């Protein structure tokens, strides 16, 4: 199948998507800040049938040294980059009137600048192999949910970066995709009813189909991908 890099893969959507790709025979490089949680996830993912494999590289995507480690981990070539790692910012999530600018800068560092930096580092390989980029965004990028301004604006920025990148890189498929609400620790930390949300495995299955079918660059929603099956 090829080699994929998925950030933020110790839990939630990243972990579920890594599992899907390993089942399909991909070699998947995964990262997360919590080394122990990442090691446990990688061990579970490696046990999936399908002939794929997994390499775990712990660290923070906002750290240039860690990004350099990720680039070295895929130095044999990359076919798919999934920018999934993200942060909500401060919790409980404040209204914009009360959001410290320094906290917003940290949110953008993880949710916008780190993905772009990885893209810049890995574009030569992705161009050479006719690869793809999947940037995980959110409905908060386009909706006006109260207290979601910091996170939502970072995802809106990631969407527009993706939109322009798609125009600039015709040899690379660029998708920016909204997974919808998922039963994850992140949604729970945001104060939402995560228990009533679908499991991340549903969005992962939808995104696996996106990767497999390789439509033109553009914005997608997991719900639409699932409904089109």
UniProtKB/TrEMBL annotation:
Single GO molecular function: oxidoreductase activity
Pfam families: adh_short (PF00106)
Gene Ontology annotations for the cellular component aspect, listed alphabetically: membrane
Keyword Chloroplast attributed: no
PROSITE patterns for this protein: ADH_SHORT
UniProt entry keywords in alphabetical sequence: Oxidoreductase
Family per similarity comment: Belongs to the short-chain dehydrogenases/reductases (SDR) family.
Listed name of the protein: Short-subunit dehydrogenase
Organism: Actinomadura hallensis
């Amino acid at each position: 199948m090829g080699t994929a890099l998925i950030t933020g893969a110790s839990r939630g959507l990243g972990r579920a998507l890594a599992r899907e790709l390993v089942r399909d025979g991909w070699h998947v490089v995964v990262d997360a800040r919590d080394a122990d949680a990442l090691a446990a996830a990688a061990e579970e993912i490696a046990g999936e049938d399908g002939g794929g494999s997994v390499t775990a590289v712990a660290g923070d995507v906002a750290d240039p040294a860690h990004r350099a480690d990720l680039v070295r981990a895929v130095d044999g070539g990359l076919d798919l980059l999934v920018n999934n790692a993200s942060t909500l910012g401060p919790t409980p999530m404040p209204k914009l009137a009360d959001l410290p600018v320094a906290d917003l800068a940290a949110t953008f560092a993880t949710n916008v600048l780190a993905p772009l930096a990885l893209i810049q580092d890995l574009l030569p390989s992705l161009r050479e192999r006719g690869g793809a980029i999947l940037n995980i965004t959110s409905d908060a990028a386009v909706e006006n949910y109260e207290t979601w301004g910091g996170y939502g604006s970072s995802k809106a920025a990631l969407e527009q970066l993706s939109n322009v990148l798609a125009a600039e890189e015709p040899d690379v498929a660029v998708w920016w995709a909204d997974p919808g609400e998922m039963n994850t620790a992140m949604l729970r930390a945001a104060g939402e009813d995560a228990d009533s949300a679908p499991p991340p495995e549903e969005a992962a299955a939808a995104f696996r189909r996106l990767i497999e079918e390789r439509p033109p660059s553009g914005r997608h929603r997991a719900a639409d991908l699932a409904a089109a099956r």
